[in-house]
């Protein structure tokens, strides 16, 4: 075999070997990669419990919220509820609701708007609220200053006579004429009791005082209140108290150079020179308590009205004038302390009416039933209670 043929055969063999190797490489299968481990299932957080709807609360006011007195004090209580409970409650109010058929219409409308707790803040709403409560058993009703209750309505009040008594103590010391004056609203026991307590307070430090009264037969009527205050001052009264809702009496005293008290709210700014002190009502403690009971499912009616005073932080005498003698200020502090701990009673006999008849025996302390039925003046108050006891 020639060298040429050998070289050709060797070249062919080599090429064949290379081709076989290439074919073998191309036909080789790669081992499959191991599958990635499956991710562990993530446990989903439980869905949050649905947030309860806020308690809807409505207030019916007899006067405007800017009256500076009665309604202003109630509205401060409403604001305290909002501050205390935040988004757990939604409050609303209707002001200047007359003590008439309109009251029933407004209160029914409050029910229709989904309110579940309704406060009516004046005596004249009692009968309308009883009617609406009877038709709305799933709603809770609260009536201020009344005396009737139902399964879903209860009455509440503040012992305003305690503030009136303290005002009387100051008035008895500060009068120069020994003649005091009261501008009175409506002749119901609440108002008569306040006139009498004012007089008893004054007599405790000055037995010579007498009290004159002018009735305006409305809770809020600044022109009438001004006219009544002017009449009292012209009749010799140099210190005035009121049981009406505006600041008109204090403002009239300021203009005429006499002295007077704020009522229900601190009225210092309305007559700073005339102002002797303010007998205030703090509704916040009661409103916060009542709303908490409703939220906690513990609200229930009461066999008698709920009646809070100095002891519960609902009544106070504030902003006493600088020229009131220190011994009188000390006496006011002692009265407050005694009312708080029960060691002092305003209505303790002997107490006689304006005709001299003994109405409360010596050393006897009046109970709430007695206080709730007063329709006569104590000795020292001039005149007769309109429609009251003629004895």
What is the fold's blueprint, element by element?
Blueprint (H helix, E strand, L loop, with lengths): L2 H25 L27 E6 L9 H16 L3 E6 L6 H12 L4 E4 L5 H10 L4 E5 L8 E6 L1 H15 L4 E6 L4 H17 L4 E6 L6 H13 L4 E4 L5 H9 L2 E6 L10 E7 L2 H12 L10 E3 L6 E4 L7 H16 L9 E2 L5 E3 L7 H4 L20
Parallel strand pairs: 1-2, 1-3, 3-4, 4-5, 5-11, 6-7, 6-8, 8-9, 9-10
Antiparallel strand pairs: 10-12, 13-14
Helix pairs in contact: 2-9, 3-4, 5-6, 5-10, 7-8
Structure characterization notes:
- There is one protein chain.
- This protein is an alpha/beta fold and 391 residues long.
- It folds into 2 domains: 55-159 and 284-310, 3-Layer(aba) Sandwich (Rossmann fold), CATH 3.40.50; 160-280 and 315-371, Response regulator (Rossmann fold, 3-Layer(aba) Sandwich).
- It is built from 11 helices and 14 strands.
- Strands 2-1-3-4-5-11 form a 6-stranded parallel sheet, with helices on both faces. A 6-stranded mixed sheet has the order 7-6-8-9-10-12, sandwiched between helices. Strands 13-14 form a two-stranded antiparallel ribbon.
- The longest helix has 25 residues, at 3-27.
- Residues 1-32 have low confidence and may be disordered.
């Amino acid at each position: 075999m020639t060298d040429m043929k050998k070289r050709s055969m060797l070249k062919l063999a080599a090429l064949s070997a290379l081709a076989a190797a290439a074919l073998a490489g191309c036909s080789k299968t790669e081992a499959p990669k191991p599958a990635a481990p499956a991710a562990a299932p993530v446990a989903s957080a439980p869905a949050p419990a649905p947030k309860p709807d806020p308690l809807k609360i409505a207030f019916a006011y007899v006067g405007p919220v800017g009256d500076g007195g009665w309604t202003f004090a109630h509205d401060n209580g409403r604001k305290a509820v909002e501050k205390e409970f935040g988004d757990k409650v939604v409050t609303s109010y209707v002001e200047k609701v007359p003590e008439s058929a309109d009251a029933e219409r407004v209160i029914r409308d409050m029910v229709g708007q989904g309110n579940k707790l309704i406060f009516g803040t004046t005596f004249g709403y009692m009968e309308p609220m009883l009617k609406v409560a009877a038709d709305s058993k799933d709603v809770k009703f609260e009536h201020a200053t009344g005396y009737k209750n139902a399964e879903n309505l209860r009455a509440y009040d503040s012992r305003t006579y305690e503030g009136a008594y303290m005002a009387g103590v100051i008035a008895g010391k500060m009068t120069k004429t020994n003649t005091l004056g009261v501008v009175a609203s409506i002749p119901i026991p609440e108002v008569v009791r306040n006139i009498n307590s004012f007089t008893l307070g004054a007599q405790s430090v000055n037995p010579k005082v007498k009290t004159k009264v002018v009735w305006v037969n409305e809770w809020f009527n600044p022109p009438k209140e001004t006219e009544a205050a002017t009449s009292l001052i012209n009749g010799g009264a140099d210190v005035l108290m009121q049981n009406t809702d505006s600041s008109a009496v204090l403002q009239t005293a300021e203009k005429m150079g006499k002295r007077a008290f704020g009522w229900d709210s601190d009225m210092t700014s309305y007559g700073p020179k005339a102002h002797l002190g303010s007998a205030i009502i703090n509704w916040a403690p009661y409103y916060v308590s009542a709303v908490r009971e409703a939220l906690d499912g513990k609200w229930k009616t009461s066999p008698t009205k709920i009646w809070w005073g100095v002891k519960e932080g609902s009544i106070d005498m504030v902003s006493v004038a600088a020229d009131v003698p220190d011994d009188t200020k000390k006496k006011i502090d002692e009265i407050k302390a005694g009312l708080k701990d029960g060691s002092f009673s305003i209505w303790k006999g002997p107490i006689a009416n304006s005709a001299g008849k003994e109405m409360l025996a010596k050393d006897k302390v009046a109970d709430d039933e007695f206080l709730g039925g007063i329709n006569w003046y104590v000795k020292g108050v001039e005149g007769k209670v309109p429609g009251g006891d003629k004895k």
